[in-house]
Amino acid sequence: MTQQAVAAPQPVPTSDKLDAAVLKVAGVVVLGAIMSILDVTVVSVALPTFQSEFDASYARVAWTMTGYTLALATVIPLSGWAADRFGTKRLYMVALALFTIGSVLCATADTIGELIGYRVLQGLGGGMLMPIGMTIMTRAAGPHRIGRLMAVLGIPMLLGPIGGPILGGWLIDVASWHWIFLINLPIGAIALIYAQLALPKDNPQPSESFDFLGMLMLSPGLALFLYGVSSLPEAGTFADAEVWAPMLLGAALVVAFVLYSFKPQHPLLDLRLFRNRSLTIAAVTMFVFIIAFMGAGLLFPSYFLQVRGESTLAAGLLMAPQGIGAMITMPIAGMLADKVPVGRTVPFALVLIVAGFFTFTQVDPNTSYVLLCGSLFVMGLGMGGTMMPIMTSALKSLTGPEVARGSTLVNILQQIGGSVGAAVMSVILTNELNGSQPIPGVTDPSGKAVTEAGLAIAAQQRPELTQQFPVDPSLIERGLDFAASSFATTFWVAFALVVVTFIPAAFLPRWRERSHLLDDQQGEQGKTPVVVH
C-alpha cells in the first residue's frame, strides 16, 4: 500500500547504511506489517472451517475477506490526511490498537455476521499500518535510503503468502479457528509498547481537507453492490429484492461518486489521473488481473480441504510453492522494472500464470499433487513478475503531487479488485455446488435437504458422517466428482479473466520511460515510497 507523502524537514543523512536508530523504528513497522499481511493470507485456509462452524454458504463466509479488503480500501486515502492532522506516531498506535482489538473480537464471534463486522474493524486498523509505517520509516531514514527500507519491509511481504496459510492451518489443527485471530493479541501488545518507546514524536501539521462525502458514497456503494451479488446463490434469481435492491442502490452510489469526484479540489480518488494513458492501461491491467487471481486464490486451499479431505495444515503447506515462486521472481522483477520496459516483461509473467492456472481448470478428486504444486509454483513465478512492475508502470509517468494521488488510486483499485474477485468467485462456486442432486429423505439439522456434493464435502472432513447416513458409497464418489467439477468451472472463469488481461497488457509501455519518482523523492525529503499490499 502506499499513501501520500508527509513533508518532514530533516537533515539528509550522509551514509546509505541503516543505522541503529532507523532499524529500531523499522522494527516497529515490520511488526505491524507482519500482522496485517499475515492476516490477509491466514484466513484463506479457514473459510471451509467458518462454513461448518457457522452453517453458512461459501459466498457468505467469503465476506470475511471481502469486508476486510473493502475496509482496507476505505482507510488508504484517510491515513495520509489523518497522519498530517494527528501525527504519525499517535495514528500508528491507534491503528495497532484497532487491529488488535478487532482481532480479539473476531475470536469471540458467535455468528458469521459478527465475524464479518469484526473483520471490517480489523481491516480499518490494518489498512493504516502500512502507509503510516512507510511514512514513519521514510522520515527516519530519508528518501535516498528508500531501496534499503524496501528491502527491510520486503521480508514480511515475501513471507506472508508462504507463512500465512501454513500458520493458519497449524493453529486450526492444533487449537481452533479462534487462534488465527488471538495470536495477534501478544504481537499487537508488544508492538504497541515498542511503538511508544521507539517512535519519535512528531508535530502534526493539518494540511488539505479530506473528502468525507466521497468516502461515504464509494465504500457503502461497493459493499451494497457486492452484498447483492453475494445474495444471488441463496435467492436463486435476480428478481429477488435481496439481490436487486442492494445492487441497484450500490451501483447508484458508485455512479454518483464517479460523477462527484471531478468537483472537489482534493477528491477521495482523483479520477482525472485517468487522462494519463500509461496509468490507465496499467490500472486496467492490474484490476482485471487482481479480480481473477485473488478471487481464485481463495479457492485453492478450499479445494484441498473440501475435495481432497486434507487437514488445514496440509492445505497451507500445499499452498507454499506459490509463495516460494513469488519470492524468487519478485526481487528480480523489481530490478528489471528500472531497466526493461514492463511491456516486455509482464506478458511473459502472465504466460507463466496462464500455464500454471490451466491445471486447475482440469481438477478432479484425484489430480496429482505433484502437478498441482508444480502449477502453483509456476503461477507464483508469474505473480512475482506481474504486480510490482505494473504498479511501477502506473506511477512512472506521474510527477510531483500526482505521485501521491496516483499511488492512492492504484492501491484502492487493487483492494477493490480483491473484494470483487472474492465475492464473484465465491458466488460462482456456491451457485455451482447448489446444482448438486439432493439426497432423498436426508436433511440437515435445520431441515434443509442435503445434496450429494454437500454430504461428500462434509464426509471428507468428518468421515464418521458416512456411518450416520445409510448411503451408497458410490454417492460419495459422485458428490466429490460434482464438487471437483464445480471448482473446475469456477477456475475456468478466473482463467478466462487472466487471459483477458493480455489485452490491456499488450498496450503497456514497450520502450524506456523516464521515471519521475526518484526525482520527486530526491527533491522532497518526506516523500513516501510506493508500497504494494
TrEMBL record:
<dbReference type="InterPro" id="IPR011701">
    <property type="entry name" value="MFS"/>
</dbReference>
<dbReference type="InterPro" id="IPR020846">
    <property type="entry name" value="MFS_dom"/>
</dbReference>
<keyword id="KW-1003">Cell membrane</keyword>
<feature type="transmembrane region" description="Helical">
    <location>
        <begin position="241"/>
        <end position="260"/>
    </location>
</feature>
<dbReference type="InterPro" id="IPR036259">
    <property type="entry name" value="MFS_trans_sf"/>
</dbReference>
<keyword id="KW-0812">Transmembrane</keyword>
<feature type="transmembrane region" description="Helical">
    <location>
        <begin position="312"/>
        <end position="333"/>
    </location>
</feature>
<keyword id="KW-0472">Membrane</keyword>
<feature type="transmembrane region" description="Helical">
    <location>
        <begin position="91"/>
        <end position="110"/>
    </location>
</feature>
<feature type="transmembrane region" description="Helical">
    <location>
        <begin position="345"/>
        <end position="363"/>
    </location>
</feature>
<feature type="transmembrane region" description="Helical">
    <location>
        <begin position="149"/>
        <end position="172"/>
    </location>
</feature>
<dbReference type="InterPro" id="IPR004638">
    <property type="entry name" value="EmrB-like"/>
</dbReference>
<feature type="transmembrane region" description="Helical">
    <location>
        <begin position="281"/>
        <end position="300"/>
    </location>
</feature>
<dbReference type="Pfam" id="PF07690">
    <property type="entry name" value="MFS_1"/>
</dbReference>
<feature type="transmembrane region" description="Helical">
    <location>
        <begin position="369"/>
        <end position="388"/>
    </location>
</feature>
<feature type="transmembrane region" description="Helical">
    <location>
        <begin position="210"/>
        <end position="229"/>
    </location>
</feature>
<feature type="transmembrane region" description="Helical">
    <location>
        <begin position="58"/>
        <end position="79"/>
    </location>
</feature>
<protein>
    <submittedName>
        <fullName>MFS transporter</fullName>
    </submittedName>
</protein>
<feature type="domain" description="Major facilitator superfamily (MFS) profile">
    <location>
        <begin position="25"/>
        <end position="513"/>
    </location>
</feature>
<keyword id="KW-0813">Transport</keyword>
<keyword id="KW-1133">Transmembrane helix</keyword>
<feature type="transmembrane region" description="Helical">
    <location>
        <begin position="482"/>
        <end position="508"/>
    </location>
</feature>
<feature type="transmembrane region" description="Helical">
    <location>
        <begin position="178"/>
        <end position="198"/>
    </location>
</feature>
<feature type="transmembrane region" description="Helical">
    <location>
        <begin position="116"/>
        <end position="137"/>
    </location>
</feature>
<feature type="transmembrane region" description="Helical">
    <location>
        <begin position="21"/>
        <end position="46"/>
    </location>
</feature>
